[in-house]
Design brief:
The complex is a heterodimer of chains A (464) and B (62). With 464 residues, chain A is of the alpha+beta class. Chain A has helices at residues 3-11, 17-35, 43-58, 100-107, 150-157, 174-180, 214-224, 259-262, 268-283, 296-314, 327-338, 341-359, 361-364, 394-399, 404-407, 437-449, 456-459, and strands at 38-41, 70-74, 83-84, 93-94, 111-116, 128-129, 133-134, 163-168, 183-186, 206-211, 254-257, 287-290, 367-371, 384-387, 390-393, 412-419, 425-432. The chains are: A alpha+beta (464), B mainly alpha (62).
Chain lengths: 464, 62
């Protein structure tokens, strides 16, 4: 059942939120011991909220499509009265206030089921968490779900909740969306407030949504968008209609096909699936335009320097607590400590220069279509992965096609576009100009309606 | 590449007490971006402003 189907069933009183919530609490109880998707489950609070939601409906109060819908948030988000760890042992406090995005979900009537496991401190892409257990990929329990929002993607893929919130600093929503076969939206920088979310790198951090399909993603995203003076980067850009329309074609849409860099060194199954999705978009009426982008490798290098520097500054109070930090996180923090301030400032100067160069791309095309990740989900514990002819660091491979859009602050959506020969999900990435989320969601919905995705019969054969 | 960094020396100067293997990993990570980043940084014109900037009014003047 999708979020929108559940919303209709709730609205028409075919189903109560209390019954729906109880069934998912039981499912989480059964599966979380092996999946490790949740750090904290909130059964009592969720049931209380669900019952209240049912009472509101009896009183003819309708809060919209999320009213009574079970969702969950990454453990980096604060929920008042609930423990926040961000998947670490060095952060551990009970929040006194809700994160802005949590407030928005509650105002929309959503039922928050708990807080999700993640890569330690959001600083990595495997979600192989040394403190709360390795999050397992529902498609293959020996594989990573991706990260850092790994629990957020696994929980949606395993049907534990209808949608989740995650954060994305260098691909941390889109990578797990790609590896777990779900939809992940990283909006424009500043579009969703980060108030009450543990930062990693403040000039790269984004809050976003994961759900089972594009229209469900749009329904959650719509509830989260508003200006928030508590987040200094929050935008006042006008809020528009984000719900994709039915029966719209791609006629007149210019889709950019950046073959250089984005289609180099791909797993052959990924290459084939994404080219197939592009061909399908053309058949649906889009104009496919080859496009040459500014140097993505340079943008990635700039992003890495900014990430290392900002994360080392943010996490400096914990850096001497070495025995309680995972080895991979520690190594990244040490790298950040070695970077001179001069390099950080120059990276931010290059960022502005390349941002201006990249803006010209939108004169030529409306959206870009690329793979999200060059590969499918690697095995848990693998530090190197083979893609085409060589082995590379698993982190470098996973972030290669996504990091640049954090540096540029552009909205990007990952959606499933098929399965590999091993039966693992493949991700398609759509990218648009700043604040063009409505175009991205509309494009994604048309592609889904046009058959791009994972056939439901396969999705129902998950291990859990 | 006139400003190429010696990452191992910088690690020592920053007081990092890490094993040889950890130092190799640390230097490897930084060196991987050095070759791309350094020539670009060296070529920046003085007039190029950074992407993060100070505002006289801290909030609400977007």
């Amino acid at each position: 059942m999708t979020l929108r189907e559940a919303a209709v069933a709730l609205q028409e009183r075919q189903l109560s939120s209390a019954d729906l919530t109880k069934s998912l609490i039981d499912r989480i109880d059964n599966m979380n011991l092996s999946l490790h998707a949740f750090i904290t489950v909130l059964p009592q609070a969720a049931m209380d909220r669900a019952k209240l939601s049912d009472l509101e409906r009896k009183d003819h109060v309708d809060r919209g499509p999320l009213h009574g819908i079970p969702v969950a948030v990454k453990d980096a988000f604060d929920i008042r009265g609930v423990r926040t760890t961000a998947g670490s042992k060095v952060i551990d406090y009970v929040a006194t206030e809700d994160a802005a995005a949590v407030q928005a979900l509650e105002a929309a009537g959503a039922v928050i089921m708990g807080k999700l496991n993640q890569h330690e401190l959001s600083y990595g892409i495997t979600s192989n968490n040394p403190h709360f257990g390795a999050v397992r990929n529902p498609w293959d329990s020996e594989r990573i779900p991706g990260g850092s929002s790994g629990g957020s993607a696994a929980a949606v893929a395993a049907d534990l909740v209808f949608a989740t919130l995650g954060t994305d600093t260098g691909g941390s929503i889109r990578i797990p969306a790609s590896y777990c076969g779900v939809v992940g939206l990283k909006p424009t920088f500043g579009r969703i407030s980060r108030f009450g979310v543990l930062p990693l790198a403040p000039s790269l951090d984004h809050v976003g949504v994961l759900a089972r399909n594009v229209r469900d993603t749009a329904a959650v995203f719509k509830a989260l968008v508003s200006y928030d003076p508590r987040d200094p980067s929050s935008s006042r850009h006008p809020v528009v209609a984000y719900t994709p329309q039915d029966n719209v074609t791609l006629q007149g849409l210019r889709l950019g096909f950046p073959e250089k860099f984005f289609f180099e060194r791909l797993d052959p199954d990924v290459d084939s699936a994404v080219r197939g999705a592009i061909a399908r978009a053309e058949a649906l009426g889009a104009e496919i335009k080859p496009v040459r982008l500014p140097d993505i490798q340079a943008i990635n290098a700039i992003g890495y320097i900014i990430l290392l520097s900002e994360a080392a500054a943010i996490l400096e109070p914990h850096i001497e607590d070495r025995k309680r930090l995972g080895a991979d996180v520690l190594s990244l923090l040490d790298q950040g400590r070695c970077l001179p301030a001069v390099d950080y400032v120059n990276a931010q100067r290059l960022r502005r220069k390349l941002q201006l160069e990249f803006a010209k791309v939108w004169d030529e095309v409306d959206c870009l279509m690329t793979p999200t990740t060059p590969n499918t989900a690697p095995r848990i514990g693998d530090e190197l992965v083979r893609v085409r002819d060589g082995e590379q660091d698993v982190r470098v491979v996973a972030t290669r096609l996504v990091r640049a859009f954090n540096v540029l602050g552009l909205p990007a959506l990952s959606m499933p576009c098929g399965l590999s020969s091993q039966g693992l999900p493949i991700g398609l990435q759509l990218v648009a100009a700043p604040f063009q989320e409505s175009a991205l969601l509309q494009l994604g919905a048309i592609l889904e309606d046009g058959g791009i995705g994972i056939p439901p019969s396969f999705a129902q054969n998950l291990l859990w | 590449m006139k400003t190429q960094r010696d990452w191992a020396a910088l690690a020592k100067a920053n007081g990092l007490t890490v094993t040889g293997r950890e130092l190799d990993r640390l230097v490897g990570g930084l060196q991987a971006v050095e070759d791309v980043f350094r020539p670009l940084a060296d070529a920046l014109p003085p007039s190029q402003m950074p992407a993060v900037s100070f505002r006289a009014i801290p909030e609400g003047d977007e």
